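User: Can you predict the 3D structure for this chain?
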Amino acid sequence: MKGEVHSHLEESIRPYIDLIDTLRSVGIHKDLALPTIAVIGDQSSGKSSVLEALSGIALPRGSGIVTRCPLELRLKKVAGGVNWKAVLSYRDKKTEFVDSSLVENYIEQAQNELAGKGVGICDELITLEVMSPDVCDLTLIDLPGIARVPVKGQPEDIEKQIKRLIIKYIEKQETINMVVVPCNIDIATTEALIMAQKVDPEGKRTVGILTKPDLIDRGTESKIMDIAQNKTIPLRKGYIMVKCRGQHQINEKISLEEAAQKERDFFQKHNFFRHLIHFESKSLFMLFIYLFFTHFCQKSLPQLNEQIKKQLWDLRNELKECDAGPPQDPKGTLIGFINQIKSISEGELIIEENLFAQLRMEFKKWNDHLNETNLNLLLQEIKFNQNYRGRELLGFSNYKMFEVVLQKHVTTLKEPAIDLLSAIKGIFMFNIFLDKIYNIQSVQQEKAEKRISEQFEMEHMIFTQDPIYLKSLREITKEPFSEEQLPLFDKKCTYSEMLSLIFFQIVVQRMSDQLPMMITLFMLKQTAHLLSIDMLSLLDGANVSELLFEDSDVGKKRRDLHARLDRMRIVKYKLL
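Assistant: Here is the predicted structure, written as C-alpha cells:
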C-alpha cells in the first residue's frame, strides 16, 4: 500500500516539476520567482547528509564552510536505458558524466572557479541535474551553511555575506524553506530557523528537519520531544526527525542502504523517539515532501498568469521608448553559417533536435486550441441568442446576429495566434544561433504579425464558397442539399446553432492551416533567404565588427528587453 501511495504522489507531482523545469529552461526564472525548495542550516547542521538521504548522491561535506555557491540539485526519475547520468552546468560551461563518484570533484572545481580557491562564497548558481531510475522527481537548492565566526582566509563580514545570499532565496513567497537543525544544540539560537521565521512568521512555507538525534545528551530527550512535537517553536508544517549517514559511517564505507537500516533500528529501539511519527526511510521522507510541494504548487502557479500579463504590458511599454538598433552579429565563420541556415530551412537533420518535429508539435497545440474554442465557446454563446434577436419573426434568421457572434469569437483567437508566432520564433532562435538572426527575425516577426492581423480582418467578412459550406452542411445534417436550393434556403428554425457551428468549423480549418503556413514562410523560409543574403554582403564589407557593434546602454537595454519579452511570450503560450 505504501508503494502505491508513493507512486500515486510521484505521478501527481511530476506535471508540476516538468512545468517548472520547462519554465526554467526558457529562462523565466530570471524574471519571475518559481516554486522552489531551499535547504538551509547553520554550518555542520547535517544539510549535506539530508540531501544525500533524499537524492542518494554524495555531495561535498566536511567541517567548516563546504557549500560555497548555491547548488541547484535537479533530480529526474527516468525509465530503463539510463542507469545514472549527470549534467553539471554554471555560467556557459556544461559537463556530462556517468560516474556518480565524480560529483564531489566536479562541484569543488566549479566552486573554486566561481568563488576562488579557499573559503570564500559566491552567489552564482551551479546546477547539477541527475537522471536515474533510482532518484525521485524533485528540485532542491542547497545554500551555504551560516558561519558566525570567520576563519583564516574569510572576510570579516562572511556571516553577513552568507545571510544576504540566503535571504535572496528564502524571502520569496514561492520558496519552501527546509531548515536543518541538529538536535544536539539549542534550537532557539539556530540562525537558520531565526532567518526563516523572519521571512515566514506564520510558518506556512517552512518545515524543520531535526538531525543528529543520536548525539543528544542524556536527560535532554524530553526537550527534544517537545521540539519534534511542535511545542517549542511551532511551525505550520511541523518537524521531521531523521538520522542520516554521518562522516564516521562514510569513513567506514557503510553504504546508504546499510545506513538506512541502522536508522530504522535506532528509532525502533529508542525509548523516547520510537513514539514519534518519524521519517526514518527515504520513501516516507519523500511522501511528506511530495505532499507539501504539490499543495504549494497548486497555490503558487495560478498566480503566474497574472504576473506574466503584467510583465508583458510593462516590457512592451519600455520597448517603445527604445529606438530600433543594429544586429549584434560578430564576424565569424559566415560561409559555414549560411550553409547551416540553408540546411535547417530545408528540413535536414543537422541539429540535435528535429526542427520540423518541434514545429509540428506547436502547430498541433494551435489546432487543438482552435477546436476547443469552437466547441466550448460558440455553442454557449448561440444558445442564448435572444440578446441578438432583431425585428424578425420567430423562426426567421437574423444574419447580423450570426455575423456578430462569429466575429466576436474569431477575434478571441488573435492573441493566441500571436503567442504561437512568438513560441515558434523561440524555436528558431534556439536552433539557429540567437545573436546571428535577431534583427532579421524581428523584422520578419512584424511582417508575420501584420499578415496574421490581415487574416483576422478577412475572417470578419464571414465568407466561404457555397460548395464548401454545402459540403460541411451535408456532412453534419446527413441531408442532400444542393446549390439549386440556395435561393430559398433558410434552415435557422430547423438547425438553430448548427449553421453557425458549421461555418466556424470552416474558419477553424482555414486558420489551422494558414497560420502555420504564414509563420513557416516568414519566420523560416524568408528569414533563411534574407539572412544568407546579408551574410554574403558582410563578406564583402570593409570592417564587419564596426558595422555591427553598438556600444551603448540603450542597445544593451533593448537586447535585454527583447530577450525578456520573448521569454514571457513563450511561457504564456506554454501555459495555455
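The CA atoms of residues 120 and 154 lie 6 Å apart. The mean pLDDT is 76.
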